[in-house]
Amino acid sequence: GHAAVALSANQLLLFGGRGDDGAALNDCWVLGVGPEEAVGLGPNDALWLRLQVPPGQQLEGRRAFFAGAVA
Fold first, then answer.
1. How far apart are CA 5 and CA 45, in angstroms?
2. pTM here?
3. How many CB atoms lie within 10 A of CB 43?
4. Taking a C-beta distance cutoff of 8 angstroms, is the pair 18, 1 a contact?
5. Quick one: CA torsion of 20, 56, 70, 13, rounded to 10 degrees?
6. Do the Cβ atoms of 5 and 67 come closer than 8 Å?
7. Euclidean distance between the first and the last CA atom of the chain, given in angstroms as a whole number
8. Are 27 and 17 in contact (CB under 8 A)?
9. Is the CB of residue 6 less than 8 Å from the CB of residue 43?
10. For 9-58, what is each residue's pLDDT tens digit?
11. In what order do the strands lie in the sheet with 2-8?
12. Gap between the Cα atoms of 47 and 29, Å rounded
């Protein structure tokens, strides 16, 4: 599975998921939705950004987990 956490009113963090072969993934994405002038998003725009995690700091792919955010 995957985990998704709202980072703000217009940002969502997505971690994990499964590949075509069923293997647990460890990739991390942020979805930004407009309007967001700082990144050039209009009111009907959305943008996926894949986060590049430095080597040695990556999490392993996992199953049966959840994520939470503290504001």
1. 20
2. 0.75
3. 8
4. yes
5. -30
6. yes
7. 24
8. yes
9. no
10. 889 988 888 889 988 888 889 999 999 888 889 999 999 999 988 888 87
11. 2-8, 11-16, 28-33, 46-50
12. 10
